[in-house]
Amino acid sequence: MEIIVILGVIALIAVFFVAQYNRLIRLNISVNEAWAQIEVQLKRRADLIPNLVETVKGYAKHEQSTFDAVVTARAKATTATTVADTAAADGMLTQALRGLLAVAEAYPDLKASANFMSLQEELATTENKVAFSRQFYNDNVRSLNTAVKTVPTNFFAGFAKVTEREFYEVEDPQDRKAPNVKF
Amino acid sequence: MNFRTAQAANRRKTIGLLIGMGVLVWLVAFAALTYFGQSTTAIVPIAVGIALVSVWGSYYGSDKLVLTMTGAKLIQESDNPKLFNLIQEVTIASGLPMPKVAIVIDSAPNAFATGRNQEHALIAFTTGILDVMDRDQLQGVIAHEMAHVANRDTLVSAVAATTAGAIAILSDMLTRMMWFGGGRSRDRDNNANPLALVFSLLILILAPLAAMLLKSAISRKRESLADATAVAFTRNPAGLRSALEVLAQDSTVVRQKSNSIAHIWIESPLDAKAVSKLFSTHPPIQERIAVLKAMESLN
């Protein structure tokens, strides 16, 4: 009788251990998957840029500095590997693209062209997809980091070789700009 | 109230209501036993069985069944790339798999989601909603539909329908037995308290009504939960809020008015005046707008 009770308790403890371990591994995999999604979306955006630049160039030849900014930012974004580098390059590229679209505003012929209009929808959805994949990644990092730091999962983190992960933080000067108040 | 507390509150209330359903089934079984005696013991499993079989089929094949009931047509990415772009955005934000997409040819703006699980999800839009809404508004609507998928609302409403159905069948069977003076006469010598008999009778008569009320209340809580979850996906309450404002201003309703699937649309297709608030499958649209506005002011 006692043996059964003891075995039962051991089995329960084992189940508990396995559950904690698996939870950490699962959270870690989710973060990896979310990261892969960011890379997919950034790649999509990088692929879109040459076409966009060419289209704008056709109508606005004298905006070389804007084109250069986009091309440099794109080059940086495609070579970055760490989370922080990718995030920084991503922020720069977002900025440069905003500049390019602002330039396009000044050319009505360009804005009316069918090619540009379809590119604009592509760019809008790509920007959203990039933003949502960042958000999804950060949500997953948040749950992983919470699990790594809180009882009881924190006791298993070392054993499962799961550590805290880095958030994907994009520097966006527009976010910090104080709102203009006019009276 | 931010979207996280809103989600938690609505989940809690759903669980409370489902427990209420369970208690109601138990009450009806208890009343049947008190009123008719032991001969009715087998009736409860029979009623639950019938309800389970009838609801389970429609739950399992919900994606196909609803397609035929609403006349929705499945579409491919090439048919509407912009809509697919928007849906892909929401799948990335939610981490859900890509659902099947369908269109209902109807000028009334509306949308719905169904499917037994996340892998068999189907979301559908009327041509009307695609015409009148801009990018942000549509994104809000899609997020609301994908929130139903994420929260497994087809399952929740199937459970609610099963219990409500079982209660309806049960009380129907028992009323017939009463009519034909069934079991009661055989157990006449049981010394049941007359007060208990009156209570049992009351329970048997009122239970189907109570079950309907609980079912509608669950549906309303799931709608509020889907609104909150949609905000969790897009972090943009303004998009869904202005979409709901468009729906509120629009007085046209989807042509088919099948009661049985009214709960799946984003805006109730039933005429608002015809349904009283307690039986309504959706919370009042102005209330939903107010909750989303409160979330906006947090940002």
TrEMBL record, chain A:
<keyword id="KW-0472">Membrane</keyword>
<comment type="similarity">
    <text>Belongs to the LemA family.</text>
</comment>
<keyword id="KW-0812">Transmembrane</keyword>
<protein>
    <submittedName>
        <fullName>Unannotated protein</fullName>
    </submittedName>
</protein>
<dbReference type="InterPro" id="IPR007156">
    <property type="entry name" value="MamQ_LemA"/>
</dbReference>
<dbReference type="InterPro" id="IPR023353">
    <property type="entry name" value="LemA-like_dom_sf"/>
</dbReference>
<dbReference type="Pfam" id="PF04011">
    <property type="entry name" value="LemA"/>
</dbReference>
<keyword id="KW-1133">Transmembrane helix</keyword>
<dbReference type="GO" id="GO:0016020">
    <property type="term" value="C:membrane"/>
</dbReference>
